[in-house]
Amino acid sequence: MNFRRFMKSVAQVFSLVLIDILAYYVALFLAVLTRTTLIQFMFKNIPPFFLSFQNAAELLWVPLVFLMMNQFERLYLNRVPFWEEARSLLKTSTISILLITLVIYFSAMFGPNTVLRIVFVFLWIFSIIIFPLFRFLGKQALFKLGVWKENVIILGCGPEAIATIRGLKREDHLGYKVLGFLDDDPANQDRSIDVDGTEYKVLGEIKNFTKFVNMLDIQTVFIAVRYENDEKLAHIINNVYRYVKRVILIPEIHGVSVFNSELHYLYAERLFMIRVRNSLKSKFNMFIKRIFDLVLSLAGFVVILPFFLLVAFLVKITSKGGIFYGHPRVGKDGKEFKAWKFRTMYYDSEERLKHILATDPKAKKEWKASFKMKNDPRITPLGKLLRKTSMDELPQIINILVGQMSLVGPRPVVREELESHYGDFAEYYYSVKPGLTGLWQVSGRSDTDYHYRVQTDAWYVQNWNLWLDIIILFRTPLAVLRGKGAY
């Protein structure tokens, strides 16, 4: 069995190395293609560029730099969630390109005019996209083949254990397959627990875990069991640790920043310390976020300007009223501003709303719960399309450019919503600018209840960093295309 485990580990590493080599050459091909076609077409005065077979042969050492940096970041040994791996690949690709450029520059390997720096700029751009994409697709294929699959069990079957399964199912990139639970409660023995449509069985008691570790060939154990006595939990951890390669502890800590926490140690006292940073208190971070907003918003506005004008024209000719609609929203530090949208309702929408709330109890209850109605008769036919695709919010780019909003942040709300639904969470809302998109918008949008929306906004504020904004921006187009919860 040990030999089989060893060969499987070798197959995993070998497969990931092959995936990375393939990703590198695809990125290089796209970089050279871009340099020889697009750049040549746009800038006629730039000399033509050709990558000869001799040059290609002399560059055979380059992918080794990427592989070494990935190994240094332990990307062939550790199982990490997709976005964490993507951030590591961004780091390793950037460092690799810098090292390669320095080596070529100082060695004058190809002379002054043969290899142009623009190729390496495009190689970096394509690398930070192709490497994560190929790893994602490659691990999906390897999991189906059984190469990337690893059987695990969970100690405990309470709320944290069930949440762990949900998280592992969403992060199938990790390759873990949960075989079941172990739990000491006699009432839970032989019990089956449904988690999002899949049944997971309580296999036995924790005291017999060695039997299941050997029988099921387990090398990773998740511990999500709760004891009043910390010494008993430590005893369980130490016992399990002796028989498997990895023990993953799910701590019972809620409401603490995940992205901005770091683990530290006091060796002499054998203590763990969790340091939690408030990234929003850093003026430098806020400056970077503002620059990030301005650069992407300006670039995006230039790209969508023709489409923006077309939508404005359609809004004007399809129904009576103005093109834009500005409504008061609460911003950072409680300051009100007008959030702009394309008009999606009939000009007499306020009168229609009053009539609906006065005559339709069901609509009134729905409005009171979420300040929205699923089948809102005030919305024009074009407005339904704009809302479904979130295109009605494009004018909020103006709010971003003038500094009232951010690209990513909590959903902008009216003061009445803050007072009736946010409670203590209002302080989180006041600490940042509301966003054009946000964590709530990519997590179900209007199909989620209001309490979940408030908690999601608070979680975003607690965990904010620039990488979280990037993740949300990448996920936004997919959420818009799905159209789930948009009305």
β-strand percent reads 5-15%
Oligomerization state of this entry? single chain
Number of helices: 18
Provide the number of structural domains.
3
How would you characterize the overall build of this protein?
- There is one protein chain.
- The chain is an alpha/beta fold.
- The chain has three domains: 144 residues, no CATH class; 103 residues, Rossmann fold, CATH 3.40.50; 166 residues, no CATH class.
- 54% of the residues lie in helices and 13% in strands.
- The protein contains 18 helices and twelve strands.
- The strands form four sheets. The chain has a six-stranded mixed sheet with strand order 3-4-2-1-5-6. Strands 7-8 form a two-stranded antiparallel ribbon. It has a two-stranded antiparallel sheet with strand order 9-10.
- Helix 1 packs antiparallel against helix 6.
- It is globular.
- It starts with a helix and ends in a 5-residue tail after the last helix.
Describe the secondary structure blueprint for this structure.
Layout: H1 2-42, H2 53-58, H3 62-72, H4 82-107, H5 111-114, H6 117-145, E1 150-155, H7 159-170, E2 176-182, E3 192-195, E4 198-204, H8 209-215, E5 220-223, H9 230-241, E6 246-249, E7 261-266, E8 271-276, H10 283-318, E9 324-330, E10 336-342, H11 349-359, H12 361-370, H13 381-388, H14 396-401, E11 406-408, H15 415-422, H16 426-430, E12 435-437, H17 450-462, H18 466-482
Helix pairs in contact: 1-6, 3-4, 4-6, 11-12
